[in-house]
């Protein structure tokens, strides 16, 4: 055990002061919290009479406490647990957080959300420093500006950590990374520490849901809404109703759901969850291509967007009308086939293949629900999915096209950072083609044969070409293509939709 000098003592006092700023506790607990910090860093005394302040952000203070602690860890996950043990001392407990959130919400929902986000950023539940490493740019396309992100925020595991995780005992607790049992969980080699993890609990459709901010956010105030009931992802009227309930309670946010089928759905289909946040995605800015009049829903406006995927926008001042029209459209699509375009409602084995990706928001007094048509079918030519990124674009994106990509924000893998640098080197003759990743070589040669690259423009040029590829990715995933045959097929579906009962 060590005694702290004045500078170190000030760090402790400032750290504990952050708990006051976050309304985690009152001044009556300052001594208690201070002693918890001392115990965690292996100290037994500090200089008395210092006054705490929050001029230094909490993350930097935590860095300093870890340095004072002077303990080495073999694995990164052990360092992460130690860090969250410190931060948990000044983080509001679930009850305290919920009470303060509801108190603020009763006055102004916007203030409640800002408070919760302030907490989440401060205690590193939102990894601000890691997110800042991401590379982001836009690509101007015929559909509008498309957003591209190369995701560098998640730290890579070492070989030793990968081996340790592989040999670790299997555990069913928490059952998924989304489950409510993660709240306050210590963490292991295979499960991230969640000591500071907190849910805001809500009741939607008579079920308990909780939400929190994503640690590695892909967009502003990226939130995850989780059904505590632990049921699999589903799609239908109940889904649309809950999305409407969420944007009614949190009108500052959009919220959407991944589809409920494996090829066109998200990565965790076993746990029902939605994603939302404060962001206007490219799809939401898309022009209207045509309008659709549903005879049974006169209070609803239905539009088809000029978008690489087939996207309908349903809007009304009445949430229930939007839900009813959306469910009608979904059911119609679920049973619709068009053999000429390889669109099949069911597989050869009789499995359902049609679903939608829905996104809701409340804007200018209108409830809006976007429905993007999805088809889960495969074929001998496209075994990974007929409406999935095809082989010629998989060097950039081969993963499922989920909710976020559907709306025009590409989440591209970290491997591209170094791979694209090699492409740039090749285009300006700094490296031979053999140094370019094999998957990119045909693409790189095509660029070189059709464009004039220079050291001054090559970086921007490659970004532009990546953007073009991602547009093709979305077009591959679209059930009705932006060509004459695709438009004719879409018109046939709309005719069927408007005549259906």
TrEMBL record:
Galactose-1-phosphate uridyl transferase C-terminal domain span? 249-444
Q: Give UniProt keywords alphabetically.
A: Carbohydrate metabolism, Cytoplasm, Galactose metabolism, Nucleotidyltransferase, Transferase
- A GO-annotated cellular component: cytoplasm
Annotated Galactose-1-phosphate uridyl transferase N-terminal domain residues: 47-225
Task: Name its pathway.
Answer: Carbohydrate metabolism; galactose metabolism
Q: Does the keyword Lipoprotein apply?
A: no
Pfam families linked? GalP_UDP_tr_C (PF02744), GalP_UDP_transf (PF01087)
Q: State the compartments where it is located.
A: Cytoplasm
Task: List, in alphabetical order, the Gene Ontology terms for molecular function in this entry.
Answer: UDP-glucose:hexose-1-phosphate uridylyltransferase activity
The family annotation for this protein states: Belongs to the galactose-1-phosphate uridylyltransferase type 2 family.
Question: What name appears for this protein in its UniProt entry?
Answer: Galactose-1-phosphate uridylyltransferase
The organism named in the record is Weissella bombi
